[in-house]
Design brief:
The structure is a homodimer. Chain A is of the alpha+beta class. The termini of chain A are far apart.
Amino acid sequence: MSSPGRIASILIATALLAAASHADDGMWLLNNPPAKQLKDKHGFEPTPAWLEHVQKSSVRFNNGGSGSFASADGLVVTNHHVASDAIHKLSDAQHNYLRDGFHAKSRAEELKCVDLELNVLMSIEDVTERINAAVKPGMAAGDAQVARQTAMAEVEKESIDRTGLRSDVVTLYQGGQYHLYRYKRYTDVRLVWAPEQQAAFFGGDPDNFGYPRYCLDVTLFRVYENGQPVKVDHFFKWNPNGTRDGELVFITGHPGSTQRLITMAELEYARDIQVPGVMSYLKNREVLLNSYSKRGEEQARRARDELLTIENSRKVYDGRISGLLDPALLAAKRAEEEALKKFASDHPELGAADAWDKIAEAQQVIALRAPRHNLLEAYAFNSDLFGRARAILRSAAERGKPNGERLREFRDSAKTEFELALFSEEPIYADFEILKVKNYLEYVAMQLGANDPVVQAALGGKAPGVRAQELVTGTQLQDLAYRRKLYAMSAEELAKVDDPMLALARAVDADARAGRKIIETQNEIKQQAHARIAKVRYAKDGDKVSPDATFTLRMSYGTVKGVTEDGVAVPPYTNLAGTFTRAAEHNNVTPYDLPASWLKAKERLKGDAPYNFIHTCYSIGGNSGSPTLNRNGEFIGILFDGNIHSLVWNYAYSDAVARSVSVDVRGILEAMKTIYGADALVAEILGTK
Amino acid sequence: MSSPGRIASILIATALLAAASHADDGMWLLNNPPAKQLKDKHGFEPTPAWLEHVQKSSVRFNNGGSGSFASADGLVVTNHHVASDAIHKLSDAQHNYLRDGFHAKSRAEELKCVDLELNVLMSIEDVTERINAAVKPGMAAGDAQVARQTAMAEVEKESIDRTGLRSDVVTLYQGGQYHLYRYKRYTDVRLVWAPEQQAAFFGGDPDNFGYPRYCLDVTLFRVYENGQPVKVDHFFKWNPNGTRDGELVFITGHPGSTQRLITMAELEYARDIQVPGVMSYLKNREVLLNSYSKRGEEQARRARDELLTIENSRKVYDGRISGLLDPALLAAKRAEEEALKKFASDHPELGAADAWDKIAEAQQVIALRAPRHNLLEAYAFNSDLFGRARAILRSAAERGKPNGERLREFRDSAKTEFELALFSEEPIYADFEILKVKNYLEYVAMQLGANDPVVQAALGGKAPGVRAQELVTGTQLQDLAYRRKLYAMSAEELAKVDDPMLALARAVDADARAGRKIIETQNEIKQQAHARIAKVRYAKDGDKVSPDATFTLRMSYGTVKGVTEDGVAVPPYTNLAGTFTRAAEHNNVTPYDLPASWLKAKERLKGDAPYNFIHTCYSIGGNSGSPTLNRNGEFIGILFDGNIHSLVWNYAYSDAVARSVSVDVRGILEAMKTIYGADALVAEILGTK
């Protein structure tokens, strides 16, 4: 028996093996663009000016997304789902801006976000040599890790002191290269316009990662400095004519992470340990958030943004495990690795023949510790209050150490970002927090065993519900002034503070730190081995392969292109009228219910305006909000999703059936004008005011 | 700092330690009622006639619930949530009886259920001696298990041949006693009346296991024989005057399972292995069902009944893990066990001093195998089609063996029940089934590792999505005639049948059977040890303790009684008017939206009619639908839930804050008359027609 699904799988395998030869592959560094591929395939040669303009018009949202300047007066456009965290934090029981949308009719009405940081990349500098020089031959891995981290912190500190710009050393090719990225940093960001979430995320979880789509996943902010809108030299001109089928398009943005260059040992770890652990954690949270949301409208409002984030992540990991269990993907990866290994053994002068074994050994050590590490460190008891307690506790302990020897988030160059998060005025709801802490205490007990000493310490000899109530109602960490007071204390003063959440953070800290040290040490071993593999790859293939994503600025290219799924040809564009059709097909039942604003504007709306479209640009989580550009560097859309087949892009690129999805500039402008009456904003963007 | 939660916990601990002395404890056997306690505490002495009437008026729903006869013409009342499985199977895209309710205005309109079996207990016989005699001293555990199972199967077969009644040997006190239960069996059961699920389950998941409640969790069936309504001698008279606060009440029903008499080793296994495993499985399913439901109204309808079941189970297990992590509960259990152990060592003539160690050893073996056993055997790939494939495969293999040596579900005495399930005409939806199988293949791969040989065999060298599609669209097992054809085949003929789902069942069968054998053998060891502990308990305390629940008929008693939670006194009764108030408090938003029938009848309805009430009768899952009776054996309500504190009743009884929840007979009658116009049914029930 044959099935369309199986055919698709075979196509993917074939495409993976042949990928380098024809696909619009790669998430390219702005200082190393794919000039040859672009010229050969698309007859396009980006100039240095084009690249600089694109770089400086692009914006990073530090809560995990991308965006771009849309006017000289600091207007920034991103996805609604990138903005939703900020919109949620501006909302309360009386103002549900996620549900109802927001529109500042004047600059005075623009709402300042509580803890949002935006970055614009100003320069890139290769510092590989200096970072690697810090690691002396024969150094033990633990020492090497500290030495490398110290060198990175020094480079960053020097750069900040010299330029005043945010400065991050970025690890590329899993340790093959180190680049210093300097950013202009903006922390006064104000909400300007957002549609109702129902319009932005029409079709909800079932349509998420699907296509065709009908989403106005767009929000506008404005960046301020010194109380005034910032004036920027670089912003994208919006082209109201949009694109045509087959046209060359680009995205610039900040893909969070991919794992294309990992070894088979790392891939198997992802399949057998990492993804299963994350899935279990996500599903536990999704069930909790869903059941809390059903208690009432206010509870639903409080949990909404977090729930959507978790649902989205769950779908991402669903896609990953499907890929990791696909023998075609694994066979392609294995073949690729075998070819590299053969090249390495044929070229002993590269000194990389044992690099894969080193990684496999380190990965085994990581596999033993990682689940515990995630539970005690990464997930932070699923509690904002715990996170704050730990931040204050560790800050007091770390600040006395030399810059490079601290846990990396406490290095001098990260201070502004750290304090922005710690002093966030995001509201915390005690009932919700108690529920989350109780659930987490039970979760960690079930994962590590109730008799585990850390679990016992966390429970403090009490039932989880009793303990959660004591922790949340007993702490004062929800109070900003209290956090400022504790943050100003020395470690000795802080040790005397009697706060239950602080006590919990203390109780788990030694174990959490020990796990982190193990993982970071093994990662150093892997990094050294990956640096050797990177040399093999370069010697064998040149720089045909872009580095894995690192939440830093990248550029991808591709073409507007439909897709054939299960034998059905899906055209690249949808239009505004299709939204009403899809709503009607689902009897306007949630999540296919349209907001009143849309129903009211239906007759006046240009139904044939292109709304969403798909293209072959390589994207991943973090690219959300990426400006989608034509060859003139004009904004012709905004990326907001990939289809279900794109989820495997975490491990391998193929354009057989995987697509990125953008909102079309024509749909955005038509909706802003006709549905939302945002004529002034449209005039500002199009420069017609 | 003190908190109400902590106080509640202390209260529970105190109550546990003192339980035997004052609480309305116990799920009593009808042939061994708590005569002394009832007389001493409530001045009530049940006569043999009272007991026989109560026994024969009570009905077991074999899909996992309880009920009772409500008229001489075979009318049976149970909970809507017990009936919902049958109602779901009678529904399709055109008839959504769960959502819309059902009302047969004449007997001709009553709808025959597809695979529902009802049982009425006719007699109980103690066969302990005969069952134990089959196990010879010094027998290896594996042989002992077969010998015991053979004796049980023989007893059952003899009984069926002699009486024609369904005959089950029931294991009581974890192996302390064996009783033969004989049932009258009914398989022609027809749906008579059901309210809208929104009325039956008003408040949904958030209110589930809460109180106050406002649920019409009631459905009526009628039992037929030879195409005619059955005439029964025993049925409960409904008393339209209901109860008063403080009144003595009883429930009869079929509590599924409790674990009050398990040892500390078994309790710790539940905490560290069993409950965490089940929770992971339930949450994975809940997320899947929720996301499928959101795709559209028809998908929501298909998944609805299963989703509610899973949500309910998830809450049950949430309550269990909360209890298992409560140091007060564990301390009480430990103290109880220490006292028993001391008695055993003080009385060496009982020969039970090492019984606890034997159980602990067996439990360790079980702990190693149980997770795999659940994945390959108990969960059956979360697929109805797989379940059918396995049933057919094993049936062919087992039927050639001696009755007692077969897997227990294939013994002769279970044949009718087995075939009823196998030949169910329940609809199967391919899209839904593909999704479930894909999800399960991924789940089992993540749990056992992708390289596990059985996982590899299950995946068949394909990606999970491709494999699921091949399995579901390739099999013909959804076809009843095909199942009948295969069921008639010999093992040799069946081996030649090329059906992918049958092939999957074959591929995992050896491993699944091996795991089951290990677990059953260890359970035999535990059973022998528990029999010795039961003797110690009897010697120490007499029969003050009822056996753990076994989905067989039990009687509990208690009083109508409010509860004080977090310092707030909650009265025992709600009334019909309160339903409208609660809906209004939640802006009539799902799950607090009332059906149109209620809104229409609001003005005519007697708002002060008592609707739901709480009492101290000991109940657990399986008791749903239990008739709630007064001392005259009259029906004054129907149990449908316990409050959140009652979930710990699985491990220990206390009436400090835990309560059972029943629908009041007065609310049922008022709603049936005024909202549903079911006057003819009311007249039949009250004998006034």
